[in-house]
Amino acid sequence: MCGIFGCVLNDGSPAAPLIHSSLKKLEYRGYDSVGIATLSDGKIFIKKDQGKIDEVDKILNLDDMPGSIGIGHTRWATHGAPLKVNSHPHTDCTGEIVVVHNGIIENFLELKSELQNLGHEFVSKTDTEVMPHLIEENMKRNPQLSLEQAVLESLKRVEGSYAFAIISTREPDKIICARNESPLVLGVNHKGVFCASDIPAFLDVTNKAVMINNGELVILDASGYRIKKISDGTAVTREPITVEWTAEMAVKQGYPHFMIKEIHEQPEVLRNTLRIQDHYLDLLSTFLDRANEVFFVACGTSYHACLAASYMFSKLSFLPTFPVYGSEFVEQCGKSVSIDTTMLAVSQSGETADTIAAVTCAQQRAATVLSLTNVIGSTMTRISRVYIGTQAGPEIGVAATKTFTSQLSVLAQLALKLSKKRGKISQDEIDCLEESLQKLPDKVETIVKTQEEKVKQIAKKYANAKVFFFLGRGISTATAYEARLKLMEIAYIPSIAFPAGESKHGPISLIENGFPVVFICPRDETHKTIIGNIMEMKARGAHIIAVVEEGDVDIKSLADDYIEVPKGIPSILSPIAYIVPLQLLAYFVALERSLNPDMPRNLAKSVTVK
Ligand code: G6P
Fold first, then answer.
1. Which of 87, 171, 460, 563 could form a disulfide bond with 48, CB atoms 3.0-4.6 angstroms apart?
2. Is the Cβ atom of 349 under 6 angstroms away from ligand 1?
3. Buried b / exposed e across 159-193, counting CB within 10 Å, b at 16+?
4. Is ligand 1 within 6 A of the CB of residue 300?
5. Does domain 3-251 have CATH number 1.10.10.10?
6. Which of 181, 217, 178, 185 shows the shortest CA–CA distance to 200?
7. Cα–ligand 1 centroid distance for 603 (angstroms)
8. Residue 229 catalytic?
9. If you classify domain 255-425 with CATH, what class do you get?
10. What is the pLDDT of residues 80-116, one digit of tens each?
11. Does residue 516's CB lie within 6 angstroms of at least one atom of ligand 1?
12. Is 556 a known active-site residue?
């Protein structure tokens, strides 16, 4: 997730100060590097560097660039570390075609090698850089092509998600934009036209916006904007709408809180996790394949992802893995670490002090450290041997939601990859799981769309409960732990989570009439046994709230309340779907209790002290 902005100003005023201030408003989309390109007197001017916008501005003075046309970018690294060389804008060999991009070009490696064979020189590790070179190549092959036609030709080759803004000295009066799956919106007023990843970027300047759809190309110039279909070039007429949002509402895209916005972003984020380059998964799984024992190390929500992953790796790749809390690792496992140890550290921020301490301990004992994080360029990416990004984009709500499901998706892909390497499960099973992974974003979308109202009602009913129980079996134990953490941290209701089987060894003594117990019940090999566990709780007066597969009449008939999840989600992937209604439950219970879910008391997004 990155932010792009561009403007064509028709009153001769300089574009750079507006691009700079607009990028600041998009900083919530990414903030590890920034760059601006402007056009003046047929020349391109570029300033860019790694670092937050204010830091880079202090050194480069971003406002001081000539020209009334320009584009800018604030970056959240996915391909290539946050370094100046990887910062946008990117150019072709001649420096005449300049591109900013939000999204992921899935086939960039193939395009890059094709272009390199044709003599194009690449300087960055980004996927984006293929685009200016593709345009250059198309214009070289056919000098009659306009910039617009060359962009269209190039888009035919690009697979993946994108919102592009492109300028060129060859047609220095315009910006060309294109959209597929990454957001793009235009702003208009009497002074000019603006393109951006999101409305807050230009809300100070205008509240007249034009939404751009997937598959559309836009030409911005002093006369305004023209929209065309990428597929056949037909013109699209679309009038601006008036946006009534305040600036604060706009950053949250109209949602009242970041947490609910981020819950709703999960289908898109999951789609992005499926675009991770295969060779990263291959590399990490090769290290895991060599390992005799693997420690999964993390804190908080990331630990729950590790717990779920231990079931995935055991079931799919027959690899024993040990999930350990970052804060306990040194005491619990420190002395047993050796050159033969492999550690996979998981952290949204890549900065959690306890996880970093565990990594340092492992390194000192010559272990192999791999990591999974949402922040490329974080401490963890710098100190681990190999890392992989979770592609979730910045998460602002303190309670992790989209980063949890994105971690699970990447971990599932890794387990599958290793499974293939080891040949432990049948090809049919692998195909079936891969297909299910592909379908999961849509299923999560269905859950959010169809269950939110129902969850709201359940939240109303139980908002004053004194205690909650969360129970699951097998991999759903991890879902139970995570659901409990969500409710506890933002709704301040003391909550207990256990593997359902363990509940008989103590926790059941707490049950009295009306005690809410949430059961996570995918229709997997634990289904029959969990029915027994539900009966035990019911017999003691518990109120059962079950998260079930659609049409699961057995459990629905036992439950006081139920939430339905679409059919056909394999057990191993179930936490990705089954956690979603429970994130919603925590959110709505917090609202019922008049609490701000984005800012739970005493908590921090990133805990950098031990
Ligand atoms: C804090 C956050 C949690 C997060 C945990 C681990 O407690 O509030 O949401 O799960 O840290 O953070 P990490 O960045 O390492 O995943």
1. 87
2. yes
3. ebbbbbbbbbbbbbebbbbbbbbbbbbbbbeebbb
4. yes
5. no
6. 185
7. 9
8. no
9. alpha beta
10. 788 999 999 999 999 999 999 999 899 999 999 999 9
11. no
12. no
